[in-house]
Amino acid sequence: MLETLSKTEMTYVNHVVLGCKSRKQIADLINRSAETVSNQLKNIYRKLGINSVAELCQIFYTEIFNLKDQIEIHKKEISKTLLLFSLICISSIFEHQDFLRVRRTRKKDETEFAESADIPSSYTVTVHGK
């Protein structure tokens, strides 16, 4: 996608992506007005079909580091990894809820046992094996 941009437009892209915070800073660096910088960036966004600096950065780094080809090659592995990670997260949530359910049941059993045995409340009762 970046091949469609001229050298001048690539200069603007480099300044935006590699750290200039504002259009005014870019204008100061390349001796242009802030309005010219704004117009150039609007044209760049239009050419690339994007709307934000984040999208511009994504395109820039994807093309510079050849990530697009690598992502296509490893798409299945990435999908499988994300699915596995999702399943692990979901299972850990359910394990925690199951742990809490067991804990509440044990506490209830301990309380019922203590009440039925007329044990003073100052004593603690621990029931093992349940």
Automatic annotation (TrEMBL):
GO terms for biological process: regulation of DNA-templated transcription. Signal peptide: none annotated. One of its GO terms (molecular function) is DNA binding. SUPFAM superfamilies: C-terminal effector domain of the bipartite response regulators (SSF46894). Residues 1-64 form the HTH luxR-type domain. Pfam families: GerE. This is LuxR family transcriptional regulator. It comes from Dysgonomonas capnocytophagoides. The lineage of its organism: Bacteria, Pseudomonadati, Bacteroidota, Bacteroidia, Bacteroidales.
